[in-house]
Amino acid sequence: MNRMVLLTLCLALLTGCGSSVRVIDPTTDPAEEANFSSADYFEITDKMMNSIETNGFFELYRAEHGGEKPVLLLAKGLKNNTDEHIDTRLILEKIRTAMVKEGIADYVDDHAFDMALDQLNMQATDLYDNSKAAKIGRFVGAKYVLRGTISNLRKSGGREDINYMNVTLDIFEVETLLIKWTDEVDIKRASKRGMFR
């Protein structure tokens, strides 16, 4: 009988120690500290896309080029001048995705370049039917580059941590280096540390 009670107690403890999973909405996930959070990615994307759409450059470009969309290239990532590790490429990729979905611009995939060259080299061999192989010399060059910087100023005193973050993006023309669009997003938040932390 004691073994049965002990076995039941052990099973109850084991099932009680199991892990649980909950889904969190990344667009509204509150920051736990003054640091960059997942919701910041969405806030930055939304604000920058609103700015891009109201800027007028893209409409002017299409009007001057017979409805053709401008071709852009992503920089490798935002220059990260913060004291945090932030996946800055993700910010640019979210904006690129929104621009492509809304039909504002086309993008040259900088990460696919080496893979495409390898594939073209393979297709140039006798292994492929020449009439069905991809043609060399059809790559489209980007006329503009989307790039930017993310910086922060952190002030800590006592138990409070205040973090001011600034994200600045711009689109510049490769041929002239003229900036065709630029804007910035500011985020400032404070957090208090616990007494025993």
Question: Please, could you describe this protein's structure?
Answer:
This protein is an alpha/beta fold and 197 residues long. The protein has a single domain (35-190), classed as Rossmann fold. 34% of the residues lie in helices and 26% in strands. The chain has 5 helices and 6 strands. It has helices spanning 2-16, 38-55, 57-64, 88-101, 113-123, and strands spanning 71-74, 79-81, 106-108, 144-157, 160-173, 179-192. Strands 1, 2, 3, 4, 5 and 6 form a 6-stranded mixed sheet that branches. The longest helix has 18 residues, at 38-55.
* Element-level helix/strand string: HHHEEHEHEEE
Low-confidence stretches: none
- The DSSP helix count reads 5
Structure classification = alpha/beta
The residue-averaged pLDDT reads 83
- Tell me the span between the first and last alpha carbons: 47 Å
Share of residues in strands: 25-35%
- Total discrete domains: 1
Number of strands: 6
The major β-sheet equals: 6 strands, mixed
How would you describe the shape? flat
Secondary-structure arrangement, i.e. CATH architecture: 3-Layer(aba) Sandwich
Specify the helix fraction band. Answer: 25-40%
What is the CATH class? Alpha Beta
CATH topology: Rossmann fold
User: What is the C-alpha radius of gyration, as a whole number of Å?
Assistant: 25 Å
